[in-house]
Amino acid sequence: MSARIELQPAWVLHTRPYQNSSLLVDFLSLDYGRLRAVARGARRAGSRTRALLQPFHPLLITLAGRHELKTLTAVESSHGALSLQGTRLFSGLYLNELLVRLLLSHEEHGDLYRSYQQAIIALSTERDVASTLRRFELALLETLGYGLNLAVDCRSGEPIIAQGHYLFLEEEGFERIAHSGHVSSPDQLTFTGAELCALRHCDFKEAAHGRAAMRLTRLALQRLLGDKPLASRELFLSARARE
Fold first, then answer.
1. Which of 122, 145, 168 is the last residue of a domain?
2. First CA to last CA across the chain, in angstroms?
3. Do the Cβ atoms of 72 and 40 come closer than 8 Å?
4. Cα(243)–Cα(237) distance, rounded to whole angstroms?
5. Given 12, 172, 174, 184, which is the most exposed site by the fewest CB atoms within 10 A?
6. Rounded to an integer, what distance in angstroms lies between the CA atom of residue 229 and that of residue 24?
7. Do 169 and 217 sit in the same domain of this protein?
8. pTM, entire model
9. Average pLDDT, stretch 121-150?
């Protein structure tokens, strides 16, 4: 383990109080993946470090220490903080929580880092929130080794077609099934080929396709997250209930 990490591009994923005046910070870094470090004195009044250690603020960080838990020795802004509000803020917090919960520490994920950066930038603009989230969820699943093959039937090897109906099989993919009649409330594990094609292209002009895509990515992520609910989702629901 490197004793010192110099000027590493990173984003803050989560902070929490540590000892009397410090913060424990989870970062997503370009070359080292998820890192955890102690920011000593960051909770003191007027701390410049605390002002920088905010979510959605691209940073350059320097860490020291031979163990997994590092010490933050320097931090500087690499660009202005991105402003997320309302649904976009909760969406960004959701992405952060996924990364804290699912990524092992000190494993390089350069492509995922870039996917996260693109997602946060997209959330700070007028780009569609649903397609932004689905793109990132697919990228995360791919990084974790649970990527979804949305193009080919896992049993027959035939292309997934819009007219077909498919059963989602965990760790295998999608198998075409016989189907007749209109489905008003589809089984949680059943998807139309049109829904899978829409997710493959992140095209959610039809609201039903967007709902199906969210249902599928939630199913795929749930087996990795386990039974513990996502705090960001509960926070969002609470905020909606107060409106």
1. 145
2. 48
3. yes
4. 10
5. 184
6. 22
7. yes
8. 0.91
9. 95
